[in-house]
Amino acid sequence: MNDELFNRNGSVEGERLRLVPLNTQQLKLSLEDYVKFQKSLDLKVGYNVLDGEMQYAMKIRLKKVLEDPENWLWLTNWAIVLKEQKEIVGFIMLKGYPNKLGEVIMGYGINEGHRKNGYATEAVKAMKRWIFKDPKTLCIVADTEKDNILSHKVLINAGAVKYKENNEIVWWKIDRNLNK
Questions:
Q1: What Gene3D superfamilies does the record tag this protein with (predicted)?
Q2: CA distances (Å), 47 to each of 35, 38, 104, in order?
């Protein structure tokens, strides 16, 4: 079974998840009224507000999308939605179109109540396949806090290898040629 379908609306389908790219209006609404935002996507209201870290991420992604609307899919947050439950369980973001080295930077987060269910791994794998559809992408880069063992497992399960670390951060790379 092909576990990934690219929809007309730009979302990416996994087995249990749908990754929905947030356009300018959706990013704004997520900051103004998170309940209305969830309802606008025809989703179950899971949380009443975004936490401070995610609000900051939404503001940055909105700024980036407004600066480069042509490449918005490479700059936005994507909602990670449980298909059957129609509920947001987290977000995954790209921090730009492939740079001169062919790198795409990715970050993700799963809401606390939905962790340890494999959602992050499924989302990263689906996003990885979408990213590698672009021939300019040679690798995906992500970083995690050194003590975030769950996130390390997600990246390892998605095909990432550790390539650099310091006292606080570990940097990971998913190489296109090793992930065919």
A1: 3.40.630.30
A2: 7, 9, 30
What are 24-29's contacts with CB under 8 Å, separation 24+?
24/62, 24/65, 24/66, 24/69, 24/72, 27/58, 27/61, 27/62, 27/65, 27/76, 27/77, 28/62
CATH number of the domain within which 152 lies: 3.40.630.30
- The structure tokens listed for 40 are 């606008």
Beta bridge partners of 107: 93
Range(s) of the domain holding residue 124: 12-178
Question: Would residue 164 count as lying in a domain?
Answer: yes
Q: Are strands 169-175 and 161-165 parallel, antiparallel or unpaired?
A: antiparallel
pTM: 0.90
Read off the pLDDT of residues 123-173 as tens digits, 9 standing for 90 and up: 999 999 999 999 999 999 999 999 999 999 999 999 999 999 999 999 999
Cα separation, 150 vs 20, whole angstroms = 23
